[in-house]
């Protein structure tokens, strides 16, 4: 917090003048490279991207903007994730890791000394921040080496420090304060029910009292236990779980001989998952044990891949998760040879970027992959989700006509309140 208050003061002193020495000093402060030695983070690769000079400029500009709107200090630096578009869990993780780096190095050395783990002197970039001159300092320090990453250094983190998401985040702020409804009722704002992060940031800056009220609510919550948090997800149990599901219901679709048969197979694969969730009580796996909280998008994707993986392998179809096409990762790619390919994007209807997934992400991935066929898999948890997607088929047709692609919508009803067969008839299109 002291670090960010220093940055706020520098930017405030500059008066927003980008050529002012204080402003430039703030930009150089706000460089947070990925701390790869932690082997943590949200990057899907072994080498995270971190925050480069261009992003530091963006962050400085964002802070300058919120200062100009009357926000002169933060009680928690994670508030930046609400007030500034583009600051999510990965950026906050990079910031935290860099600011704690010198302490974590000391902690690592202590653990290694206790357990006689060998260490070697290595150069660590930005090992600590010099508050006198306000600059990051490189240093030679003793650390253990990672044989799986070309003997690069390892920095340990106490497990109690870990969390799945920052306690303070944009989505939780929106849900906790019920922004759209509250702004319409209490402030007479005309606000769309489906707020994206840019709109949330704008609302937060213009109504900072709501942010302060939200912070007070979060501060009163019990601190999360990482072990318990992990048990609420499918990240550790999805493989064994899906293997049992497959062993209880194996099936064969025959041999792929042309594109039509390939597409028919994928259609049957996806509908197998849909039927498992809706008809064979699979929806129970997409809620926590008390059926009070739905599982995350990643949990849905893990279960989807786990269930279909074995069937795809048996039918000589390659199922790949998170294929990066240069414009970001598509959730799944099905392929059988070069000519038979299909991309699938899985989204929760309640996701704030849901419509972007259909209108922008999937058609962009299809274009990049030179692939015509796609599936947009939608998971609905509540009646509110169903209302949100009521226009999805007309939107999909417009997207297909605009981008000259073929996208099929598959809606999976994971509601726990309505499981009679009639309730699903409207989705079997």
Please give a quick description of this structure:
With 429 residues, the chain is an alpha/beta fold. The chain is built from 17 helices and nine strands.
Written description of the protein model:
This protein is α/β, with parallel strands linked by helices and 429 residues long. The protein folds into two domains: 2-219, no CATH class; 232-427, no CATH class. It is built from 17 helices and nine strands. The strands form three sheets. Strands 5-6-7-8-9 form a five-stranded mixed β-sheet, with helices on both faces. Helix 1 packs antiparallel against helix 2 (21-29) and helix 9 (197-206) crosses helix 10 (208-219). The N and C termini lie far apart (52 Å). The relative contact order is 0.07. Residues 42-46, 323-328 and 421-429 have low confidence and may be disordered.
Defining traits:
2 domains; five-stranded mixed sheet; alpha/beta; disordered C terminus; 9 strands; 429 residues; globular; 17 helices; two-stranded antiparallel ribbon
Furnish the topology, listing elements before pairings.
Blueprint: H1 2-14, H2 21-29, H3 53-68, H4 80-83, H5 89-99, H6 101-114, E1 120-130, E2 135-143, E3 145-146, E4 152-153, H7 170-177, H8 179-187, H9 197-206, H10 208-219, H11 226-231, H12 238-248, H13 259-278, H14 297-314, E5 318-324, E6 329-336, E7 340-348, H15 354-368, E8 373-380, H16 383-388, H17 392-403, E9 406-413
Helix pairs in contact: 1-2, 1-3, 2-3, 9-10, 12-14, 15-17
């Amino acid at each position: 917090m002291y670090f960010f208050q220093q940055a706020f003061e520098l930017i405030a002193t500059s008066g927003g003048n980008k050529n002012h020495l204080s402003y430039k000093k703030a930009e150089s402060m706000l460089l947070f490279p990925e701390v790869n030695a932690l082997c943590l983070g949200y990057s899907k690769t072994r080498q995270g991207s971190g925050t480069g000079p261009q992003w530091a400029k963006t962050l400085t500009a964002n802070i300058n903007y919120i200062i100009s709107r009357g926000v002169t200090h933060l009680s928690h630096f994670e508030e930046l994730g609400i007030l500034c578009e583009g600051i999510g869990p990965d950026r906050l993780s990079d910031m935290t890791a860099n600011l704690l780096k010198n302490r974590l190095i000391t902690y690592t050395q202590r653990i290694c000394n206790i357990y006689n783990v060998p260490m070697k002197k290595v150069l660590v970039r930005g090992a600590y921040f010099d508050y006198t001159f306000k600059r990051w300092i490189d240093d030679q320090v003793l650390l253990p080496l990672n044989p799986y990453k070309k003997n690069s250094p390892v920095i340990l983190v106490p497990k109690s420090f870990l969390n799945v998401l920052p306690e303070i985040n944009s989505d939780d702020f929106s849900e906790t304060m019920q922004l759209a409804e509250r702004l319409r009722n209490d402030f007479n704002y005309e606000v769309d029910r489906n707020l994206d992060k840019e709109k949330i940031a704008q609302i937060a800056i213009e109504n900072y009292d709501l942010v302060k009220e939200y912070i007070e609510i979060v501060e009163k919550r019990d601190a999360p236990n990482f072990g318990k948090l992990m048990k609420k997800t499918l990240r550790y149990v999805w493989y064994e779980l899906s293997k049992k599901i497959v062993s209880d219901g194996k099936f064969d679709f025959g041999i792929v001989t042309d594109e039509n048969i390939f597409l028919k197979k994928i259609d049957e694969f996806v509908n197998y998952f849909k039927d498992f969730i809706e008809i064979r009580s699979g929806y129970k796996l997409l809620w926590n044990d008390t059926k009070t909280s739905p599982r995350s998008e990643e949990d849905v994707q893990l279960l989807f891949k786990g269930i279909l993986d074995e069937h795809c392998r048996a039918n000589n179809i390659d199922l790949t998760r998170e294929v990066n096409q240069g414009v970001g990762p598509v959730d799944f790619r099905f392929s059988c040879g070069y000519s038979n390919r299909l991309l699938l994007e899985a989204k929760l209807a309640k996701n704030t970027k849901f419509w972007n997934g259909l209108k922008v992400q999937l058609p962009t991935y299809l274009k990049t992959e030179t692939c015509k066929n796609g599936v947009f898999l939608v998971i609905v948890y509540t009646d509110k989700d169903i209302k949100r997607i009521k226009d999805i088929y007309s939107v999909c047709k417009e997207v297909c006509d605009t981008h000259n692609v073929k996208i099929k919508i598959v809606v999976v009803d994971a509601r726990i309140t309505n499981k009679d067969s009639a309730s699903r008839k409207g989705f079997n299109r």
